[in-house]
Amino acid sequence: MEAREKRLTEATREMSDSLLGRRTPLPNKQDRPLAPEIKWVAERADVESLAEFACQAGAEVAERHGVDARTEACAIAAEDIVLDERARWKCIIPLCFGYGSSPMCPPYAPTTEEMRVIVSKYQYGVFFRYMPPVESHVHPQFVTESSARVNELNEIVGMVEAEAGYRGFHLAMGFKGGPCCLCGRWSAKHSADWFQGKNVPRCPVLEGNMCHYYLKARPALEACGVDEGR
Predict the structure, then answer these.
(1) Would the pTM count as exceeding 0.85?
(2) Which terminal residue of the chain, N or C, has fewer Cβ atoms less than 10 Å from its own Cβ?
(3) Distances (CA, A) of 194 to 22, 139, 186
(4) Mean pLDDT across 187-212
(5) Where is the composition biased (Basic and acidic residues) (predicted)?
(6) Residues in Cβ contact with 130 at an 8 Å cutoff, skipping those fewer than 6 apart
(7) Cα–Cα distance between 11 and 18 in angstroms, integer?
(8) Inter-residue contact 146 to 86 (CB < 8 Å)
(9) Cα(165)–Cα(51) distance, integer angstroms
(10) What are phi and psi of 30, to 5 degrees?
(11) Contact residues for 53 (Cβ-Cβ < 8 A; gap 6+)
(12) Number of Cβ within a 10 Å radius of residue 166
């Protein structure tokens, strides 16, 4: 029995070391108390306050990463969110470079019809734009910088979503734009190699494994049929 328990302990330790080696360590941050009660209905003022927070979060992220970027945000009524199947189809025709690269993009991301059901459950949302230098998203800088900029956007979305949760809106959820760039072919580590025709690792979820960045990865709005331009 002692030998068996020892083997189990060693196996558990090896597995833990392996998992920890694949995960990005969480930041050292003291937690904060949640809101005293769950809020089932949002008031316009609540969401406008979150929009202000989004601008602050954007400024904080830009400063931390040394990027000359600004953030604009506003409250938007859920009924004003435009859902159009053509927005999702523009991921397919012409085929987007992010198509099929992760569960955050088509054909795996929530469909337009599923998104329509999700939006119907909310009264308001926060719509914001993170605007780094446009050169980051065109060649030649696109190859080396765009992934980092998308991850900064993803970081802001997570901060706003978390803030909403702390304020009592426990069912708040965030979406971003563009493919997931946290790992896989579009990560800052591998995207340049992929453009050079080198073999790079796929998203682990598509290989049947656990996401290395769970709680961080979020779907693209356009992948879910949201027409941000309108």
Answers:
(1) no
(2) N
(3) 21, 15, 8
(4) 88
(5) 1-16
(6) 58, 61, 62, 69, 71, 149, 152, 153, 156
(7) 11
(8) no
(9) 14
(10) -75, 130
(11) 159, 160, 163
(12) 15
> Rounded to the nearest 10 degrees, what angle do helices 142-166 and 44-65 cross at?
140
| 192, amino acid identity | A
Residue 141 in tokens: 């800088």
Q: How many CB atoms lie within 10 A of CB 125?
A: 22
Phi-psi map region of 20: left, alpha, beta (phi>0 left; psi -120 to 50 alpha): alpha
Radius of gyration of the chain (CA): 20
- In Å, what is the CA distance from 163 to each residue of 32, 44, 54, 194, 205? 10, 16, 9, 36, 27
User: Please, are residues 77 and 91 in contact by the beta-carbon 8 Å criterion?
Assistant: no
Hey, CA dihedral for 150, 34, 75, 111, is it positive or negative?
Answer: positive
Q: Return the percentage of the chain with pLDDT > 70, whole number.
A: 87
Distance separating alpha carbons of residues 50 and 73, to the nearest angstrom: 9
Neighbouring CB atoms inside 10 A of 143's CB total 14
Both tokens of 134, joined, read 């446009």
Closest by Cα among 80, 84, 70, 69 to 47: 80
pLDDT tens digits along 162-198: 999 999 999 999 999 999 999 988 888 888 887 788 8
What is the distance between the terminal CA atoms of the chain, rounded to a whole angstrom? 66
How far apart CA 55 and CA 73 sit, in angstroms, is 6
